[in-house]
Amino acid sequence: MVAVTVWQMSRPSSLGMSTKKHTTPEITNRSPVYLDCNATTPMEPEVQREMMRFFKEEFGNAGSRTHEFGSRAKQAVQKARDQVAALVGAQREEVIFSSGATESNNLAILGLASFGEDSGRRHIISTQIEHKAVLEPLDELARRGFEVELLAPNAGGWIEAEKVHDALRPDTLLVSVMHANNETGVLQPLEEIADILREHSAYLHVDAAQTFGKVIAPLRNPRVDLISASAHKIYGPKGVGALINRKRGFDRPPLKPICFGGGQERGLRPGTLPVPLIVALGLAAEFALKNHAARERRCRQFREHLESALLPLGSRIHGDTTRMLPHVINLSLPGLDSEAVMVALKGEVAISNGSACTSSSYRPSHVLEAMGLPDDEIMRAIRISWCHLTPDMDWELIAHIITMMR
Question: Domain residues for 304?
Fold first, then answer.
């Protein structure tokens, strides 16, 4: 069972509602509680320690074959490959290390372009709610003459599997569907989509940045050909991730490299392997497999207290709550702009109003727009995301601050 470690400074209250009455929030020097784990997670202390050991002591290049430093580095990489593979039921040779899910998405999508052009299969199915790390590579393929069909979600924020079925054509090359949306936390019907594709040759790519190590079974489906993941979403370091390049029988998806130089990672991703980061990803994956049930229980407990404080304020949750990850909620508060809420709560919590990759632009969320939310509702939307390392919260204080804004 996972030990729950407080990452930020401990709070003065329990996880439940505080019993003291609040007037004006007390000004202190303590740090706000970090509630933006969908953007990035804190690192597990043991993962960080092992990573630093490979920075300081085991600093060999995994490509060096003539001495023990290189040999030990290679062994550590292979162990990490096994740890990552075990999480999704893959083989070690199906794991390609990358800089993160964005690069993995680009390799999965753009890497199929040559095969699509040579075979005359230029039709691609994806969704309107994908992360920009998928939508922008798809835009690039559209510029090259591919036909990209983006399916709209229903009001609950998920793509009905029947829409994928209806969109399939003989020349469909790729179906790319995120596992869970990064803004709403709504899970897509991945297993149903995989079943639909069993009799079709299209490759199935899943951006699993938000679910790798958190939702286990669907990503083990052998019909899922390509899986993108990042270490920094599962309590590991930034700058490393993986692409699972799963074989069908004896054949791998026919990917071509999108950059060149050195032939590492089966020729698909050149460059010196960042052994400390890879080791950390491997250990984080091992912990995720071992501890995901306990972590999920902790996150569900946290969610219960959050909802008990914020829902009575008239909050509206965006997305189908029956399909939602336990550690994220996207909601709006009546009459309160999201920017104003974030500023008012800045001393208590660190939250966001959308994807970390696009929130600085202050453009309306393309995800919430695709779900059909009105503009004023979108401008009120905030995203709160937490994890098993998140400390206890004084939710009565948060509710009080919000109430005082009205």
Answer: 33-44+291-404
